[in-house]
Each structure stands twice: as C-alpha cells, then as structure tokens.
Model the fold of this input.
Amino acid sequence: MATPIVVPDAGQTTDEMVLANWHVNVGDVVQIGDVLADIETDKAVAELESVAAGHVLAVLAEEGDTIRVGQTLLWIGQPGEGVPDPAAEAEETGARQAARTAEMVASAETGGLRATPAARTLARERQADLAAITGTGPNGCVVKRDVLAAAGPPPGGMVRPVAPLSDMRRAIGRRLQQSVREVPQFQVGIEVDMTLALAARQAQPAKVSINDVVVKACGDTLARFPAMNCQLDGDGVRYLDEANVGMAVRVDDGLVVPIVRCVDQLSLGELAARTRELIDSARAGRVPLGLRSALTVSNLGMYGIRWFTAIVNPPEAAIVAVGAIEDKLVLGPRGIMAVPTLALTLSVDHRLIDGALAARFLAAVKAQLEGA
Done:
C-alpha cells in the first residue's frame, strides 16, 4: 500500500509554511531518512525526511506553494500502486478555499455593504462612513486596514500605531492558547544540589553548558521511564521508541524547538556538540522536521530567573523549566555551607501523566544530577 508523506508539525513556529525546494521527482527511488524537500517556515528552512522506502508515485505540490500541517505532499510506494488523483485533490482543496472565502464575504454583507465585523466595529468607533470606504478584501470587502486608512486617528488625538504580530508570534500564540485551553496541566518542582554536576561539567574537555547537563539527565531518565515518553495522538497515547528531548531556542521575534535525538545514547560531550549544532542551525534559519519528543527543556537561568513554570507544547507530555543556579546556605555535617542549587519545575499534561509518575520522574532527574 502506498504511503502518503504529509507536512509534519513544526512545533511552536507556525502552522503554515512554504514548499521551498523539491529534492525528488516522480519515479525516483527513496529510502527512509532521505531528504525529500526543503520547507520554509517563518524563521527557518527545514528538511522533510522520508518515513517510507519505495518509488515516488505522485507529487501534490509545487515549489513556492503555501502548505499546511497535515497536508499530503507526495505518495511513496511500488510502481503500479494506486494513489488519489493529484488534480482532483488539488481541485477539491481549491474549491474548499473558495467556499471559505465566499462564506466570509457573505457573512459580512448587511445593508448592501461588504465589511468584516472588525471593520464595522472600528468604523462605529471612528464614526466613519463604511459606504465611502473602498474595500481591499475579497470581492471588495471592507477590512479593518481600510477603515484605519480612511478614518484617521481616534477621538482624543494621535496614538502610536499598533505593530502587527509577526506570523511566528501569531503561530506561537495559537499553539499556547490551545495548550492553556485544552491541556489540563499541573506542575511539580524540586531543588537540585548541583555540586557534582558542575564538577562533571568542568571535567569535560569541550565546552558543556548547564542546559546540556539538564538535557542529558532528562533524556537518560526518559529512557528509564517509558510511561513518560509519550505524546497525545487524537484520543489515544503514542509511546515513543527514542528518548528524544526538545530544546526551546530563542530566535529573532520568537522561539523554535529543535529536537536532540536519542539523548540517552550520547555522552555528555557528544550531546554538547550536537546541541551547539542544532542551536546554530536554528538561529541560522534551519531546523529538522519529523522528529517527535515527549518533553522539552526551557531554560531562563541565563537571565537570572530563579524559577518559573512553562506551558506544555502539544502534543508533548511535559516540559521542564530550568532556573538559575544560586548558592543556598544549608546546615551540613561540617556546619553551614553554600550549596549551588538549581530549581526545576516540571509541567505535565494530566491526561497522559499522573502526579505520582511526574514526581518520580523529576526525583529521578534530581538523583542523576546529584550523582553526576
């Protein structure tokens, strides 16, 4: 049976992308892991890898097309296998888009005027005559920007213009609104004595960050807690075979989450080299697509933040918030001493993870860091 290759989820970056470049043509033979295409998001160009082996039977999009998460881009299988007709599928997609546009315009038509609800509301606020405004929306529909251009400043004088959200900020907003609205989240926190972890970091021949140490501990612990290594998949649970860990990486105007693959199989030095490659690639505008992870690490410690809670990134099960290391005075066997202490806060999707499992997982991460 032929396998459809769909646009994978790009994490928090965006839901809409551009097909930048094809690396295959109809008839080509591909293997699992081969790069099929370059997909351009708002801030990165990602490589789409094949999840099937066989012949390219059909290509359903052209370079430069706007594509969305879940859209079928091509079919891979054996010669002679049937696939849906690309022309019919494209025609159906176009018809759906046209219907949505017509519906939007029709719903805004009242009193012989075509205007969106937002445009009508703004026109009332600015006391503007909609009939005198030329619309630039679909079929001449008056949209908000038309009212802003025609009506002038609001009563009370000039105000600073509102800067529109970028595509990345809108996509992040949609994803996190979905998380807060749909995901029943709870948090557990713990403090970690980082004395041995800092010593292990200093002993490495190459540069290793605190974030690397935490990512390594989380990946190793995920491998020992398979019940934590999961994602929500519709109404079910998808358990992952690899202990992959996402990293929240700041880029211009937002963040991306590259995924470190098989963390438990890497030494600390190898992990540090891999994270540097991923961070550099992300900030240069390239991130891999298609990898799944159950957990992301988000670190604000470099800004002096002592602790915080992070929002779960669907469909992942959990996210670890990492604060700054600070010396705490504790009473030990030799009296009062300063201990470098790190605060970790684990947020989890309660549909997938219960409190006892979350607590045991975070305690195991602490034990690994303190026994480093």
User: Anything to note?
Assistant: The mean pLDDT is 85.
